[in-house]
Amino acid sequence: MPQFKIHHVTRYMYEVPVRDSANQIILFPVKDEYQTVLKQDLTITGEPALDVYKDYYGNEVGSFMFADPHSELKIDSRIEVITKSRELPEDSIPKEEQWNNLKAIKYQVPFIDFLKQESCEVVHEIKRDTQVGQHLQFTPFVAVQQLNEYVYKEFQYIKGVTNVETTPDEIWKLKAGVCQDFAHILLVMLRMTGIPARYVSGYICPNRNGMRGEGATHAWVEAYLPAYGWLGLDPTNNCFVNDLHVRLAVGRNFSDCSPVKGTYKGTSNHSLEVGVAVSYEDGNVQDDHATILTPQPITNGQQRSDENSYRRYMEMIQQQQ
């Protein structure tokens, strides 16, 4: 069972002191039979009170307010986690029975959100190019592998051509992007076939495997298969998700799983640094670090979380790996 130490730092530096910083963080690893969190140390500038609760999808979410004037806000998470491998589906049930089981759960509450298609104008193009109807001649397990491989082969992994606001239509036309884009396109395809699919955020922690997205925040997909449950698929690397992936959150899409987001009052002139380091039991370290300057105008002295650089660029850096 692999054991990892992950250090994730988000740091904002402001040109002049700001105040009333209200934030939400989803930086708490999932705790279940496949993932054991040995330790987590979370430190935040000013040591504000942190309210931790479970959201609709079962993710641990923290919220805090830092009202005093401050020139820096640093969110520092250090975790130690053990992951456990899981067996893949045996896939022995007849394909007709499996597809019928998927039709039967279509309107059940746990799956409705993960079958609802996002607004997508190129649905007909996706159906044509991926031959979605043809997947019914295979089992759902084989179908999800084929679609995962399609995204991996047909889309180029290029940083900087997209951001968190890039739509599935734009991703499809670009045929390029990063992990979150690969995940969003695969979500569209899986839901189109009638397979519930959810977005997953976390870290990928390979040791000398050279996988894309390693040592940074990462994104992938989980597809629901009858008689098995949620199967993790990483279209960025064309692989199944197993003990080298550390899960943070699940949701309908990126917006449900953003590691950090919030608002504050004050200047828009600030710099942002985000760094992730992963260390292994053998002492090797993978790290990724980025800095972005984001001077932006503000309205009425306050930046809003849904339309300003504070959220937009932070989220882009958090997941554009």
TrEMBL record:
InterPro entries associated with the record: Bac_transglu_N, Papain-like_cys_pep_sf, Transglutaminase-like
Residues in Transglutaminase-like domain copies: 171-237
PANTHER family: BLR5614 PROTEIN-RELATED (PTHR33490), SLL1049 PROTEIN (PTHR33490:SF6)
Protein name: Transglutaminase family protein
Protein source organism: Niastella caeni
